[in-house]
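FAQ
Q: What does a multi-component entry look like?
A: The components come first, one per line:
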Amino acid sequence: MAGTPLDLQLLNLCAALLLLLSFAMLAQRRIVTLVNLLAVQGVLLLVATLLLAWRTGQNHLYISAALTLGLKVILLPWLLHRLIRRLQVYWDTEPLLNISGTMLVGLLVVVFAFGLAQPISALASTATRSAIGIAVAVILLSFLTMITRRKATSQVVGFLSMENGLFFGAMSATYGMPMIVEFGVALDVLVAVLVLGIFFFQIREQFDSLDLHHLESLKENRPTSSRQPSEGGH
Amino acid sequence: MEFLLLLGSPLAGSLVLGAFGARRWAPELNVAISLATFLAACALTARVIGAGNLVVAHEQFFIDPFNVFLVALTAFVGLTTSLFSRPYMRVEMEHGRINSRRLRLYHSMYQLFMTTMLIALTTNNMGLLWVAMEAATLSTVLLVTLYRTPASLEAGWKYFILCGVGIAQALFGTILLYFAAEKILGAEGVSALLWTHLDAVKGQLEPAVLSLAFVFLLVGYGTKVGLAPLHNWLPDAHAEGPTPISAVLSGLLLNVAIYAVVRCKVLVEGSLQSSLPSQMLMGFGLLSVVLAAFFLWRQRDIKRLFAYSSIEHMGIITFAFGMGGAVANFAALLHMTVHSLTKSAIFFAVGHAAQKAGSQLIEDIRGLITLSPTIGWGLMMGSLAILGMPPFGVFASEFLILTTAMKEQPWATPILLAALGVAFAAIFGRVQPMVFGETTAKRLPHPPALLPVFTHLAIVLALGIYVPPYLADWYRAAARLIGGE
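Then the predicted structure of the entire assembly, as tokens:
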């Protein structure tokens, strides 16, 4: 890559590491490590945003970097760690598809993602257009993580990682969304995690476990659950 | 001013009810706040009819005939639902299904949900639209799980994950839209995501990017509309949450999601100059109608039954918007109105009936007509209305949609007619014994609120017989906006 400026090389390095990280998340079964990987993903996003802000001189990118630092590097991982400690779920059970199978599907997903991003990259005028394919790949790999996991916490990590992928995509295609939208999205993500925290305690109170196979009983012809308690009234 | 009151009163109400939502007078306060919102919506409507489109807050919000009609409808159903929920939630308290903390949560989130829907309807910014739609999901997740039963937790989880993933697709679509727009409008100003600006330059937007964006936007917002095959969350969320929430989810949230899809379609169609968006809408719409009609046969829970009926009607509306053109758009808007009114009326009646019988199962609810004739007749008339029986408004809109389909898309007409027939047999066969069979039900401690049921049905009936000229003009103006020349 002779002739490419150093900051751009670093940006591409960040993008490549993000992709690698998505694969690591796909394979990781220890939930604490999964949350740590999510935090690392946040750090990489932060570095990429700062590099891009410095390179393009767009001031709003500094604000969005601050938002990334506060929310994705510090607050969300902290909340998730606290949740894990209090719920005491440390390991996900065997994923629905075994690790090597998941990896193979993941590779195909990446090829598909680059194909999908091709027309967008061709039209983009940003310095980071080559990273759009990686962003799409991160989104799809996170989706795959969500599909193959059984524990609610791992699915949420997948969901947040998907949001990171979307953020990276917006950054590499257009240098970020308008500020008001970014604030809104960040607020939604934060509220989502808080709501889920409450929700997990409800699930646990009810089932004494966070394993989602308990949550697979609502089928078309199983009406017992909708019977209301008949006590009370007159 | 009216606009500030419109968004401000439910938002402030949500905060106040967050603090005092468990007091004895909280249900009345909830009604009062909804009334304030409704009055603001009326004032806003009068202003838009009189003075034309309204743009507020640095163009971040705008009101035109299309969204002001939905704002008025949303505020009205919000008001009647709060009237219905007053005795309903008190009975739930006395049955011991919720405690005072959950009642507080319910009241606070109800108003927050109204706020997010009104923001989604009035915003001019496609990014804010996304944010408000996601916030609408988040504010209702904890309401779906209000009873903390295993089934409601499952429904809430499904609702959160499916809608969350779905709406993430819509965010990607929005990013692509911004990507295409900033080439024309420039990234420096914040105008590149404003719908009015996008609409002005839609002919110059890059078609390749926009068609890709539309796929993501349709899948994303389509999940919230409940279009098959992305409808899985909808019956569960409707059946397991408290009935007032089923009524607003079905009557209002689905409309707001369709509104988002239609706004996107207008932009993409202008850029593509092809029929791809129309065909996708028609395809998804038809698939939903057919699938829902057949799933109706398998339902044993009354709220699930009507949830599937909502999927069917959302399919019809989507199909009509897909056909496009002045008549079809007019019919789709009319159908949105009458479906929303009828379906929420049905849920009100069903809610009281289920409380009386102590069960949501169809086989447990029998003979409503003997014990409580008004609920019985409300449910019967609501069901006949939603099935498209002639004097009601649903007949008028379905008739318009079907005749347009015969002219524009003849191949689809037999499919639609067959699905409507199947749905008729399924719903009527189940509701008839509920109303006229032998009774087992008991008295309720609080008299049910039947005014909302009959108000809604009366409006639907009136719309079926006679659409007043100013209302027709209003629908036509909205239909023109969506691109029916």
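Q: Is there any commentary attached?
A: Sometimes. For this entry: Chain B has a mean pLDDT of 87.
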